[in-house]
From TrEMBL:
The lineage of its organism: Bacteria, Bacillati, Actinomycetota, Actinomycetes, Micromonosporales. InterPro entries: Metal_Tscrpt_repr, Metal_Tscrpt_repr_sf. This is Metal-sensitive transcriptional regulator. Keywords: Copper. Belongs to the CsoR family. It comes from Pilimelia columellifera subsp. columellifera.
Length: 96
């Protein structure tokens, strides 16, 4: 059975590699806490992870807009797919 095409299908390997790097950064932050590193240094690394995740999220939104929304328009589900995307943007923008 063939996996469904997603907006990120063409760059899945790059996306997976980026997520693994982020995972490594998070493990590094955990080690910093275990090693009692300076608070500001830990916060700086947390900020870097958040920025990296934001970049992944924006890339996924771009793929969704270019692929999934196009597909939704083609199949008569444009409004549904647009609402879904706007909800995802809202979730990404919530912080704190």
């Amino acid at each position: 059975m063939t996996a469904p095409q997603r907006g990120y299908s063409a760059t899945k390997d790059q996306l997976t590699a980026r997520l693994r790097r982020i995972e490594g950064q998070v493990r590094g932050i955990e080690k910093m806490v275990d090693d009692d590193r300076y608070c500001i240094d830990v916060l700086t690394q947390i900020s870097a992870v958040q920025a990296a995740l934001d970049k992944v999220g924006l890339g996924l939104l771009d793929g969704h807009a270019r692929h999934c929304m196009h597909e939704g328009a083609r199949t008569g589900r444009a409004d549904e797919v647009a609402e879904e995307m706007m909800a995802a943007i809202g979730r990404l923008m919530k912080r704190g």
